Amino acid sequence: MHFLKWLYPGMKLKRWLLLFSLGVIAASIGLAIVFNYKYVGTVEEAIFRMVYLTTGKYYYAVTTIAGIAIIALGLTIMTLATRQIIHSVISVLIPDGPDRLVEIIFQKRKLNKGPTITVIGGGTGLSVLLRGIKSVTSNITAIVTVADDGGSSGRLREDLGMIPPGDLRNCLVALADTEPLMEKLFQHRFGGDGSLAGHSFGNLFIAAMTEVLGDVEQALKESSKVLAVRGKVLPASVQTVRLKAEMEDGSIVEGESQIPLAGKKIRRIFINPEDAEPVEGALEALREADAVLLGPGSLYTSVLPNLLVHGIAEALRKTPAVKIYICNVMTQPGETDGYSAADHVRALLDHVGPGVIDYVVVNSQEVAPALREVYASQGAFPVVVDAEAIEAMGIKVLKANIISETNLVRHDPLKLSRAIISMVYKLTVNSERMRLLDYYLIGENIKELKDLDD
């Protein structure tokens, strides 16, 4: 049913098809005048003779029907001819075919008019959210943590002195509009026992682009072109940042990958250097956003490190955008053991101060007992939603069914994006872009928006 997208509002094609039809009609009338209606009269006379000799009456009714049939035939021929012309052109320009063409036009015409959204976070949770959001708007900026120090990213960080590329790569792939093979290539991880073992191709590609261009921001920009990324991916800072945590017993644990392994309750986290400068593009994205989304993702090792970069939290406080925190569904062993939804919010506010969250999105769906048992064996449990405690902090709560259960409990990209975008449209009230709701957003989460009214 891809052809129906040609008829979507704002595609700017129907008007030209109508103009083409009017042109054909005008040309037909002109030809009739030039030839003094000779041929039109001949056709009409032939119809008259056939009808009169067959029925002896109903001349006017039958000629009207015949005229309508000829018009329909003409329009059908025009449509088929136009379709074949377009197909002949795009078969050369776009080998993937007309379906690909309509997707490109749809993206340029409609997705470019979507809300401007800035997402802050890192890890798997951020890439899940981006996969859903990109189907509604291409005005996306992902601000990604640079505190990762484990795996392939950690090795490249130490060997090349660059910021860790792993979370940046995942976000690029999540926002990409490419062939599945390209996605597999960027996510491919080398095996074996050599020096390449454990590295992903995407990480190496970003590292190589950074060395060639001499600038990680430019490297990400060029990598986005390769993957046909919808939106932008930016690091929170281009400085190498080390994450540290002070535990309840006063001990200090250094390294993003080591903090969850310490097995202690976290009192606070901080970064070194504490005055790490933000990327200017990240500050600009916060200033210009219609909505800023925090998370989902690891509270202390994915979301908060971004806000601790100098200037990020202040820019978030000052932005006129709607600020939404997406709370995790399950607690994370070594980070948020025993945390409720209010505890997650309180930790954010304790670290960066008030004014950075307007709304909290929490899951309202029950986790299946079998999955609860699996997660409990690993020390993870569903996050308790204590909405009253959150609202006591002056922050509103939206409960929605936003998870997908397979062998893991994770946010569902489509459910989450629908809940978030419908919420953004309601709160920002942009009449031009509200029309996008007509054919995408009307779903099960829209009724939840009534809870947001004052």
Automatic annotation (TrEMBL):
Q: Can you supply a Gene Ontology BP term from the record? A: regulation of cell shape
User: What CDD domains does UniProt report for this protein, alphabetically?
Assistant: YvcK_like
Q: Which Gene Ontology molecular function entries are recorded, alphabetically?
A: LPPG:FO 2-phospho-L-lactate transferase activity
Enumerate the UniProt keywords alphabetically: Cytoplasm, Membrane, Transmembrane, Transmembrane helix
The entry's cellular-component GO terms read: cytoplasm
Checking InterPro entries in the record gives: CofD, CofD-like_dom_sf, Gluconeogen_factor
* Superkingdom of origin organism: Bacteria
From the Swiss-Prot or TrEMBL record, state where the protein is found: Cytoplasm
Q: What is its main location?
A: cytoplasm
Transmembrane portions of the chain? 16-37, 58-81
**Pfam families associated with the record:** CofD
Sequence similarity? Belongs to the gluconeogenesis factor family.
Q: What does this protein do?
A: Required for morphogenesis under gluconeogenic growth conditions.
The record's HAMAP family line, in alphabetical order, gives: Gluconeogen_factor
Q: Which PANTHER family match?
A: GLUCONEOGENESIS FACTOR-RELATED, UNCHARACTERIZED PROTEIN YVCK-RELATED
Q: What is this protein called?
A: Putative gluconeogenesis factor
Organism, scientific name: Propionispora vibrioides
